[in-house]
Amino acid sequence: MTASPRSVEALKIAAQAAEDKQGTNLFAVDTAERMGLIDGFLVVSAHNERLVNAIVDAVEDDLREKMDMKPTRREGRSGRRWVLLDFEDIVIHVQHEEDRAFYALDRLWSDAPRIPLGLESEAPALEEVDQEKDQQMIREDEL
Known about the structure:
Layout lengths: L4 H16 L3 E7 L1 H4 L4 E7 L2 H19 L5 E3 L6 E5 L3 E7 H7 L1 H4 L5 E2 L15 H12 L1
Parallel strand pairs: 2-5
Antiparallel strand pairs: 1-2, 1-6, 3-4, 4-5
Helix pairs in contact: 1-3
Protein backbone atom coordinates (compact mmCIF):
# COMPACT_ATOMS: atom_id res chain seq x y z
CA MET A 1 0.00 0.00 0.00
CA THR A 2 1.31 3.45 -0.89
CA ALA A 3 0.11 6.98 -0.30
CA SER A 4 -3.04 7.88 -2.18
CA PRO A 5 -2.76 10.21 -5.19
CA ARG A 6 -4.80 12.82 -3.26
CA SER A 7 -2.34 12.72 -0.35
CA VAL A 8 0.66 13.01 -2.67
CA GLU A 9 -0.97 15.98 -4.40
CA ALA A 10 -1.69 17.62 -1.02
CA LEU A 11 1.92 17.12 0.09
CA LYS A 12 3.18 18.73 -3.12
CA ILE A 13 0.81 21.69 -2.72
CA ALA A 14 1.94 22.13 0.89
CA ALA A 15 5.60 21.89 -0.16
CA GLN A 16 5.15 24.54 -2.85
CA ALA A 17 3.39 26.86 -0.38
CA ALA A 18 6.23 26.35 2.10
CA GLU A 19 8.92 27.02 -0.50
CA ASP A 20 7.09 30.16 -1.62
CA LYS A 21 7.42 31.46 1.98
CA GLN A 22 11.16 30.67 2.18
CA GLY A 23 10.80 27.18 3.63
CA THR A 24 13.96 25.17 3.06
CA ASN A 25 15.27 21.62 3.17
CA LEU A 26 11.88 20.10 2.32
CA PHE A 27 11.29 16.38 2.22
CA ALA A 28 8.18 14.25 2.00
CA VAL A 29 7.91 10.61 3.00
CA ASP A 30 5.36 7.94 2.10
CA THR A 31 4.36 6.35 5.43
CA ALA A 32 1.24 4.47 4.31
CA GLU A 33 2.80 1.01 4.52
CA ARG A 34 4.79 1.60 7.71
CA MET A 35 2.30 3.51 9.83
CA GLY A 36 -1.12 2.79 8.44
CA LEU A 37 -2.50 5.88 10.17
CA ILE A 38 -1.33 8.47 7.66
CA ASP A 39 -0.25 8.37 4.02
CA GLY A 40 2.74 10.64 4.43
CA PHE A 41 4.31 13.69 5.93
CA LEU A 42 6.27 16.73 4.90
CA VAL A 43 9.09 18.32 6.87
CA VAL A 44 10.08 21.94 6.27
CA SER A 45 12.79 24.08 7.85
CA ALA A 46 12.50 27.78 8.63
CA HIS A 47 15.26 30.25 9.52
CA ASN A 48 13.33 31.89 12.37
CA GLU A 49 10.11 31.78 14.37
CA ARG A 50 8.33 34.36 12.19
CA LEU A 51 8.97 32.24 9.12
CA VAL A 52 7.63 29.16 10.91
CA ASN A 53 4.31 30.98 11.35
CA ALA A 54 4.30 32.38 7.82
CA ILE A 55 4.91 28.92 6.35
CA VAL A 56 2.19 27.36 8.52
CA ASP A 57 -0.30 30.03 7.41
CA ALA A 58 0.59 29.57 3.73
CA VAL A 59 0.30 25.78 3.91
CA GLU A 60 -3.08 25.98 5.64
CA ASP A 61 -4.37 28.58 3.16
CA ASP A 62 -3.25 26.67 0.05
CA LEU A 63 -4.57 23.31 1.22
CA ARG A 64 -7.89 24.91 2.16
CA GLU A 65 -8.20 26.73 -1.18
CA LYS A 66 -6.90 24.04 -3.52
CA MET A 67 -7.91 20.80 -1.79
CA ASP A 68 -10.66 21.86 0.64
CA MET A 69 -8.54 20.48 3.49
CA LYS A 70 -8.38 21.91 7.01
CA PRO A 71 -6.14 20.67 9.79
CA THR A 72 -7.91 18.59 12.40
CA ARG A 73 -5.14 19.32 14.87
CA ARG A 74 -2.42 21.92 15.23
CA GLU A 75 0.38 21.54 17.78
CA GLY A 76 3.16 23.94 18.76
CA ARG A 77 1.85 27.20 17.34
CA SER A 78 2.49 29.15 20.54
CA GLY A 79 6.15 28.07 20.71
CA ARG A 80 6.71 28.92 17.04
CA ARG A 81 9.68 26.54 16.76
CA TRP A 82 7.99 23.33 15.63
CA VAL A 83 4.44 23.35 14.39
CA LEU A 84 2.69 20.13 13.46
CA LEU A 85 -0.37 20.31 11.22
CA ASP A 86 -2.47 17.15 11.16
CA PHE A 87 -4.72 16.86 8.12
CA GLU A 88 -5.66 13.24 8.99
CA ASP A 89 -4.15 11.63 5.86
CA ILE A 90 -1.03 13.79 5.88
CA VAL A 91 0.99 15.60 8.52
CA ILE A 92 3.11 18.69 7.99
CA HIS A 93 6.06 19.49 10.29
CA VAL A 94 7.42 23.04 10.11
CA GLN A 95 10.55 23.30 12.23
CA HIS A 96 13.03 25.99 13.14
CA GLU A 97 16.40 24.94 11.68
CA GLU A 98 17.89 24.28 15.13
CA ASP A 99 15.03 21.99 16.13
CA ARG A 100 15.21 20.26 12.77
CA ALA A 101 18.88 19.47 13.31
CA PHE A 102 18.30 18.30 16.89
CA TYR A 103 15.31 16.00 16.27
CA ALA A 104 16.63 14.74 12.90
CA LEU A 105 13.41 13.41 11.42
CA ASP A 106 15.34 13.01 8.16
CA ARG A 107 17.52 10.38 9.80
CA LEU A 108 14.64 8.64 11.55
CA TRP A 109 12.80 8.23 8.25
CA SER A 110 15.79 7.87 5.92
CA ASP A 111 14.82 4.34 4.89
CA ALA A 112 11.18 5.22 4.08
CA PRO A 113 10.14 5.86 0.48
CA ARG A 114 10.56 9.51 -0.43
CA ILE A 115 7.91 11.42 -2.34
CA PRO A 116 9.68 13.55 -4.96
CA LEU A 117 8.53 17.15 -4.75
CA GLY A 118 10.35 18.58 -7.76
CA LEU A 119 11.28 21.75 -5.89
CA GLU A 120 14.52 23.68 -5.70
CA SER A 121 14.49 23.57 -1.88
CA GLU A 122 13.99 19.81 -1.68
CA ALA A 123 16.41 18.11 0.71
CA PRO A 124 18.74 15.51 -0.77
CA ALA A 125 18.09 11.93 0.29
CA LEU A 126 20.35 10.61 3.01
CA GLU A 127 22.54 7.89 1.57
CA GLU A 128 22.75 5.61 4.55
CA VAL A 129 22.20 6.08 8.22
CA ASP A 130 25.02 4.83 10.39
CA GLN A 131 22.98 3.52 13.33
CA GLU A 132 26.08 2.51 15.26
CA LYS A 133 27.44 6.07 15.01
CA ASP A 134 24.03 7.47 16.05
CA GLN A 135 23.97 5.20 19.11
CA GLN A 136 27.49 6.31 20.04
CA MET A 137 26.42 9.95 19.80
CA ILE A 138 23.42 9.25 22.03
CA ARG A 139 25.60 7.51 24.63
CA GLU A 140 28.08 10.42 24.60
CA ASP A 141 25.22 12.90 25.12
CA GLU A 142 24.13 10.98 28.22
CA LEU A 143 27.54 11.35 29.89
